[in-house]
Amino acid sequence: MSPVRRTALVSVVAAAILIGLKLVVGLLTHSLGLLSEAAHSGTDLVAALLTFFALGVSGRPADATHAWGHGKAEHLAALAESIALAAVSAFIGWHAVQRLTGNAVTTVDATWYAFAVIGLVIVIDFTRALISLRSARRYSSPALLSNAIHFAGDLAGTIAVLVGLLFVRAGHPRADAIAALFVAVLVLVAAGKLAATNVDVLMDRTPTDAEDLARRAIDALGPAITLDRLRMRTAAGSHFADVVISISPSAALAEGHAAADAVEAAVLGAIPGSDVVVHVEPARADSLTEGALAAALTVPGVREIHNVRVLRAGGRIEVSLHLKFPGDASLDQAHALANEVEAAIERALPSVTAVTTHLEPLEAPIAADELAATEVAATDREVRRIVVELTGNDPRELHFVRTDGGVVAFLTVALNGDPTLAAAHEIGGTVRSRLRRARPELADVVVHTEPAA
Q1: What is the predicted pLDDT for the residue at 98?
Q2: Do the Cβ atoms of 120 and 72 come closer than 8 Å?
Q3: pLDDT for 89-107, tens place per residue?
Q4: Domain positions in the chain
Q5: How far is CA 49 from CA 17, 43, 142, 340, in A?
Q6: Contact present, 412 and 427 (Cβ < 8 Å)
Q7: What is the pTM of this model?
Q8: How far apart are the C-alpha atoms of 177 and 55, rounded to whole Å?
Q9: CATH code for 368-451?
């Protein structure tokens, strides 16, 4: 048996003992206050039993018919308890009013053993309220928290009955009915609060504090991730978050997955133990080029898209792009996918009058051997000289490999200042062209640019 259910079982035993004590002494002394407290404890017994069995249900793992688990069983039990409390408060209040108006006359006998029982009840009420409160906080259990609230209400009601009997003993016979009416109001208020709290959970009302924490955590991830929708609910102390984000339409699938992971980690960091589901969508394109790329990426089967160009001439807008497919794909297959890409772009961008695609195969891996510095010493010196001349900096990295097509140079150059990507690309292209002219034996030069800082 779990610690939570053991706590609930203790509450069941305590409620049964209290009912017996209050009922017997109340009947012997004709105290409406004690009888009302016995009825109050009777509802607590029902509530404790409901909590005990509900915790057994809520602790079950998720299954095929309850994908989010069984946590709401606790809230159903607490709602049933609130209804029982409201009914008892009405019953107690009616009898108290009858005595206060003189319609029902009963002599209350405030004997010593009544006070002894009330003292014992106060000790039990205080102990079980404290135990339930500590367990509710430790295990985040709404059912145990509702028990703690009701046990605290029992304690307040018992103290009111004690005060009423003291006044009866001092010669004020109506004090017992007043104490009973106080208990009725106390029970009714507790029932209303309990019902409102658990109806909110059962109706999936948004937990605003948790939502604010999650929203701030996602916003802190930066402008690359836009939060489009956040829905949250709670059950049995756990939070469930449904998140929709948008990222750049040109982002790859892996980037979208990484963004979703980042959002999930952020929400879990802000609200530990949450169940987070993240859906990623492409953001609205800010340009025709981005829009064309985003539309083309929606077609399954396209492995790579590059060289996207938008041409404007004589009121016409034409898009051209290169598509790569597996090398073993047939021309019919590639052509069919290209037609789908063209149609997707035309649907997404009605202003585009024509789309032209260039089909390419994905390159197969190329066998290559690393060359020692002594084998390409002259080429190495020439490459370094040209890089310094064009950028003002030595190459950060330079190595050569031999392929079936010839020697390939891999080069990293640092650029001063803060050039735009377009400017950096142009400088890299100039470096590549100069090196190919100066050293014709190079089959290719791959240039990577990065800021000098």
Answers
A1: 76
A2: no
A3: 787 788 778 777 766 555 6
A4: 3-202, 208-282, 288-361, 368-451
A5: 14, 10, 15, 63
A6: no
A7: 0.51
A8: 37
A9: 3.30.70.1350
